[in-house]
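Recall the central idea of this unit: under ordinary conditions, the amino acid sequence of a chain determines the structure it adopts. In this exercise we apply that idea directly, starting from the sequence alone.
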Amino acid sequence: MKILIVEDEQHLADGLRFNLEAEGFAVELAADGRIALEILSIEDKNFDAIVLDVMLPEVDGFTVAKKLREAENFTPILMLTARSRPEDVLNGFEAGADDYLPKPFELQIFLARLNGLLRRREWFRREKKSTIETEIFEINNKLIDFSNLELRSETETIHLTLMEAKLLRYLIEKAGTVVSRKTILEEVWDLNEDTDTRAIDNFIVRLRRYLEDEPNNPQVLQTVRGVGYRFINKDKTT
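Accordingly, the structure predicted from this sequence is:
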């Protein structure tokens, strides 16, 4: 597997490369966000994951993640941040990151999080233990294909990030049940602290644009005022 490390601290970048190569990964380095975007824009440059620092010269990590997702590059991103406040973590998720790790960190924790991210991507393709019986879910004449992280309609195909897919899948599995924002923070994003929940609301807004016939009058992802959200099960599996 091939990993891109985007890190401006040379000693840290070199150390991560050395240890990842010892684990059998192929590694490429980028010292700032601008260089990373240039590398990732090359057509034949494909990576299995990106390790992305937030505090970068030229272009910061949040912007890099956002630009990649806007360009429909959905390579999994592990974001490294010295700012580990829950709000910063959620900002990373909203920009398109799939997991985060606060600095400083132990090597074994880093390797575990990276390998977990790679396994999670495969889990969406292979996992069969979910309460959803198949990997394809139909609603409002749209197909949610969790195996390929896609939402397809007659007119377009939308690529889901891992975090969008993880939240949507969780809500579908809890169909008919009111799920609080606190529960989403804890069970979807592994955040146990009190934090601003606006990032969750922003994710819901995006999912409604994908799913609802009238996003401003949601029938599928409903808001339960003062509590959270409820997915109304109008689906059929294929």
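The first strand starts at residue 2 and ends at 6.
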